[in-house]
Each structure stands twice: as C-alpha cells, then as structure tokens.
Amino acid sequence: MPLILPGYGVGVPVDRLTQARRLDAEDPLAAFRDEFVIAEPDLVYLDGNSLGRLPKATRERLHAAIDQEWGVDLVRGWDRWIGLAREVGDLLAGGVVEAAPGEVVLGDSTSVNLYKLAVAACDARPGRRVVVTDDDNFPTDRYVLEGVAAARGMTLRVIPSGLDTGVTLAAVRDALDDDVALVSLSHVAYRSGAIADLPGITAAVHEAGALMLWDLCHSAGAVPAPLRSAGVDLAVGCTYKHLNGGPGAPAFLYVRQDLQAELRQPIWGWFGQRDQFAMGPAYDPAPSVDRFLVGTPPVLGGYGARCGIELSAAAGIERIFAKGTALGDFAIELYDEWLAPHGFTLASPRSGRGAHVTLHHPAAWQISQALRDASVIPDYRTPDRLRLGFAPLYTRFEEVHEGFQRLRTIMEAESWLRFSANRSRVT
C-alpha cells in the first residue's frame, strides 16, 4: 500500500481521474503553480528535475536588474550586488537545507564547487590516501573525484550501488578504513531517485575519521537535507532543477561552521580574500564561508536563483517533500495498473524516493521520443530508463494522470515502433 500523507489520500481505490482531481483540489501547494510561466497548457512537463520552470517573479526581477541596475546604475550596482552570494546562501540555509546562516554560499558550478571542497577535504586529512564514491554517482562527481585522486597520487575506491535502489550504509561501511580521507556521495540518486541514509552514512564516515561530502543536486528543493543535525561536513548542490533558478544558474556549497577556518580550497580568488579591496600582495583567506568563493559572482544568475529559492522557502521543504512523495506514489499506482502489463518494470524504490520515478523498458529511448511527440516531456537515462520528474510546486496530479494516460496509449497502439533506436542526441 502506498504511503498516505496528510492532505494526500493516495491509495484510495477510485476512478483514477477522479482521484487526481480530488488530490489537486485538496493540495495545500496548489496555488504555487500560478507563480510559474505555463506557456503550453497541453504540455505535460515531467522533467522539472532537469530544468525547472520559469517563475514569473524571475522574469520581472531580471527585467528590473537589466533595465535599472545595469542600464542606469552601471557600476554603482555593485553596492547591492557585492553581497548577493552570501544573501542567497543564507536564504538556502534557512529555507531549503538545514544549515545556519554563514554556512552556505552561492557561486560557480556544482562541478567546480565539488572540486574545491574535495581538494580542501583531502588536504585536511594528510597521510590518508583514499577517496570513496559509488559506481552510480553522477558522472561529473565521479570524474572530478577521479581527477582529484589522480593529481594527488591517491586511490579512488568505487563501491557498488544498486541502479534501482541506490547506495547503502552497509556498502559504505565495508569501504571504510583508516586510510580514507573523504567519502562523496549523492543524497538522491540521479537515476532511480533513491534517497541515501544521509545521517547514518555521515556518522559511519566520521567514525572512520574521514570527511563527508554530499551532492544535493536532486534533493535541494525536493527532499529535506538535515545537514546540521547529521553533522555533515560539506555539501554542494545546484539551483536550476527543483529550485527553478534557470538554465546555467549558479550552484551552492555548504561548509560546516567549525570546519571553515580549518579548510583551504585550491582556487585562491579575490572574492575569497579576507580584505578583498585592499588588493594586497598575498592571499589571506576570509575567516568565513566566503573563503570558498573565487571570482566575480553571476549577478543575473544569482537573482534567478534567489527568486526560485524564495518560492521553495515559502512553500516549505516538508510540504514539498510530502507532495513529491504523493505524486510519485500516484504515478507508481498508475504504473502498476497501466504500464506493467506492457513490459515496464519499476526502477525506483516504492518508498524512500526523491521527486522522480524511473521506469525500465528495453525500448525506453524510442518510447521517450514517442512521448515527446505526444507533448509529454520525460527524461531518458541509460540503461533503458524513462525518468519521470514531478515538481511539487507546479506539477498537478491530473498532469501525472494525463502523462501516464498518453504513455499507455502509446504502448497500446505501439506507436513507439516508428522511432529509431539510434540515440544520436541526449535528452
């Protein structure tokens, strides 16, 4: 039986369309959909976990920033822009992840932030020669960690994780010894949506004397991230998925308060300098999370990130998580009834998921193209997986019903057969 959450009676055996409409009518977050640009009402958008929709407030804020702040204020705009990275970081700390003001800062990309924190962590554990990650961690994480280890003569120890079930505490424990400097994993698995045991894994890593670095890209804005209560050392995340910051929006990083003075990141830029405008001859890192900044922050991207983050903070991460879980439960019920008979298998956990559900089918690529042709935007992931993302701030239960109804029609009519199996482009 699916998890039944307050305000979302998923699991009630009624007509599915009637059920979807009732769930939408009872949805405490329903009003947030009106905060987003919905340009194609017939489009079923199930890829908000790759790129979130455009908030109306972002469009207005960027127009004002371009016309007034850049167009009129010119360089005088730096009077307000200079602190944007910390301001947005504090907003994230208070409204999206469990952290204190001064522990989160906005800037750079997830990959760059991961590199900075991974190097800093390895430097903080001299004499230890191993970095641990898992074989289904997001590719950029694995590549960055591989490069960090190679450059330092360290070993990257890659542990097995289930494609559909994620990394386990037991697998992490098996990889730990007194030679491990750093463990870096994703909180929510990008392929299956499985949620890792963040508190348990962090505690095990600390018992081994190593540092823990979490990737929050698929959890920030979708799943609670108990960084402070779990004693997490380091984390990175992006703002263009569930936080709706826009394409290429800057990422963020988290460093636990008591670690900040101990760690020194490898890219010594002037925004990380203690007295930035003294233009001194030597690098002296700021005594705060600012030491993890590098160069000039992306102002327009920062405004986009802030507008999206403000919506998530207003909705509340617990309510967002509850709706995301309910949307996924509803989707799994439809899968059980409508899609399992057509050769699909569930490639996500039935519980303990982020805000997406993944289905496996040998013809997933062709089916994804047929869905696009039917005005449904999913995401394809190897091997042969159809990833369906639900953005709780704007995805309706009736949309999920409609998307799965169109998918069922495609399977019944076998219309996916007219699409080539040649995956010449990435979706």
Written description of the protein model:
It catalyses: L-kynurenine + H2O = anthranilate + L-alanine + H(+); 3-hydroxy-L-kynurenine + H2O = 3-hydroxyanthranilate + L-alanine + H(+). It is an enzyme of class 3 (hydrolase). It comes from Asanoa iriomotensis. With 427 residues, the protein is an alpha/beta fold. The protein folds into two domains: 16-35 and 317-418, Aspartate Aminotransferase, domain 1, CATH 3.90.1150; 58-314, Type I PLP-dependent aspartate aminotransferase-like (Major domain) (Aspartate Aminotransferase, domain 2, 3-Layer(aba) Sandwich), CATH 3.40.640.10. The chain has helices spanning 16-26, 56-73, 78-81, 84-95, 110-123, 139-152, 169-175, 198-207, 299-315, 317-339, 364-373, 397-413; strands at 44-45, 104-106, 130-134, 155-159, 180-186, 211-215, 234-237, 252-255, 345-346, 356-360, 376-377, 379-381, 385-389. The strands form three sheets. A seven-stranded mixed sheet has the order 2-8-7-6-5-3-4, with helices on both faces. It has a four-stranded antiparallel sheet with strand order 9-10-13-12. Strands 1-11 form a two-stranded parallel sheet. The longest helix is centred in the C-terminal third of the chain and has 23 residues, at 317-339.
